[in-house]
From TrEMBL:
Alphabetized UniProt keyword annotations: Aminotransferase, Pyridoxal phosphate, Transferase
Pfam families named among the record's database cross-references: Aminotran_1_2
Cofactor: pyridoxal 5'-phosphate
Span of domain Aminotransferase class I/classII large: 41-389
Gene3D superfamilies: Aspartate Aminotransferase, domain 1, Type I PLP-dependent aspartate aminotransferase-like (Major domain)
CDD domains in alphabetical order: AAT_like
Domain of life: Bacteria
Protein name, UniProt field: PLP-dependent aminotransferase family protein
Length: 399
């Protein structure tokens, strides 16, 4: 059996946390709250096309040569300057590494830090793609609950006291995927103090930080870092286009050297032609103005989602009220299995889909939650979908 030759991390009997997330409902009236994709009607296609032409015209054949392994220096400088505006993450392009999406940045950090069995803390629920990347290194997970203002620091400290070997904490502090929750500034600072005291690395993953509907981005956790133990990760996927596959990380010297070592082995360098085009796009266009257009759309969609949940869901279901991003998180009464509900009742009767909570827990052991993504749907469709979903939830709760 060829399967016997595979590494444990690739064992197909244990599917990737990212596989099987979405149900495919061929019904023409189907409404999906499942996929967490940005709204493609908002992609600046013509401007990006012009930017590719500009980059190619300017550099010709040289553009298609191997390039800097950390990524295009001009683009790194622009990203560093942009993040420098909202709390000093860095203003130094030498501390920035361009990656193939934020996803590769997460995977590189995992690869640089984790031996089999190493202890890792994650918020629960957490981003399913981070679980997929971390899972490859077969860590021992400790879940830490989220509160309305972010990770429960008391619970984290208790966990750290019990398990002093924890070496990595993964967190999504801004408009968290899957819950929409944002970590308070006070907690960001306290979290760094805990990392210093208990000697662990923080992986701060923040692809949604620009998408606060009413507020400018909060200071990143990394802005409180005094010991070079926070790696900051972000991405252009949610504010420009995901298929550009351009994410980036910021790390200080020691961790940066380790990350670059594993990056060279993985892919030598990321997509240099695309980086030059993005640099040309940022020179010719105002990204902040584009982000404001996105925020205007997502704000309206989120309001429609929250209003519909209030109208159509039973009182004993709780939901978050996000201040940015793409997601709302619903907690159903204990005992209701959101996965079984989706499969047995919601898909056949209402043709609506979502991602059940088990996917967002490292041990797949919490069943009564669900993630709803509103980014791709109009307010009318959101209202109709939540109405249909609410009927099924009510029936299940009152059965
Ligand atoms: N982190 C989080 C929290 C995400 O939601 C996503 C995308 N769903 C990513 C990282 C990775 O996105 P990308 O690789 O497209 O930058």
């Amino acid at each position: 059996m060829l399967k016997d030759l595979l590494a444990t991390r690739a064992n197909p009997d244990v599917p990737s946390a990212l596989s099987g997330l979405f149900t495919n409902d061929p019904d023409p009236s189907a409404i999906s709250f499942a996929a967490g994709s940005p709204n493609e009607s908002l992609f600046p296609v013509a401007a990006v096309q012009r930017a590719f032409n500009t980059a190619i015209a300017k550099q010709g054949a040289h553009l298609f040569q191997y390039q800097n392994p950390q990524g295009n220096p001009a683009l790194r400088a622009k990203l560093a300057a942009r993040i420098g505006k909202w709390g000093q993450v860095t203003t130094d392009a030498d501390h920035v590494v361009l990656t193939v999406g934020g996803q590769q940045a997460i995977e590189l950090v995992a690869k640089a830090l984790l031996n089999v069995g190493d202890e890792v803390a994650v918020e629960v629920p957490t981003y399913v793609g981070a679980l997929a990347a971390l899972d490859l290194y077969q860590p021992t997970y400790y879940g830490v609950d989220l509160q309305a203002d972010g990770i429960d620091l008391d619970q984290l400290e208790t966990t750290l006291k019990r398990h002093p070997g924890i070496k990595l904490l993964y967190t999504v502090p801004d408009f968290h995927n899957p819950t929409g929750i944002t970590m308070s500034v006070a907690k960001r600072e306290q979290l760094v103090a805990l990392a210093n005291r208990y000697d662990f690395i923080i992986l701060e993953d923040s692809p949604y930080r620009d998408l606060g509907y009413e507020q400018a981005p909060l200071p990143a956790i990394k802005s409180f870092d005094t010991e070079g133990r926070v790696v900051f990760v972000s991405s252009l996927s949610k504010i420009l286009m995901p298929a550009l596959r351009t994410g980036w990380l910021v790390a200080d010297d020691e961790l940066l050297a380790a990350i670059m070592k594993v990056r060279l082995a993985s892919d030598l360098e990321a997509t240099g032609v695309t980086h030059a085009a993005i640099d040309a796009y940022l020179t010719a266009n105002d990204l902040d103005a584009h982000v404001n257009v996105l925020k205007d759309h997502y704000r309206v969609q989120c309001a429609a989602m929250v209003a519909a949940l209030g109208k159509y869901f039973p009182d004993d279901a709780q939901f978050t009220t996000p201040a940015g991003g793409f997601f709302d998180w619903v907690t159903l009464p204990a005992g209701i299995d959101a996965g079984a509900l989706l499969h047995d009742q919601v898909t056949p009767n209402a043709h609506v889909s979502y991602v059940p909570s088990t996917n967002f827990y490292p041990n797949r052991d919490v069943h009564n939650g669900l993630r709803l993504c509103f980014s791709g749907l109009t307010p009318t469709v959101i209202d109709a979908g939540i109405h249909r979903l609410g009927e099924q939830v009510k029936a299940a709760v009152h059965e």
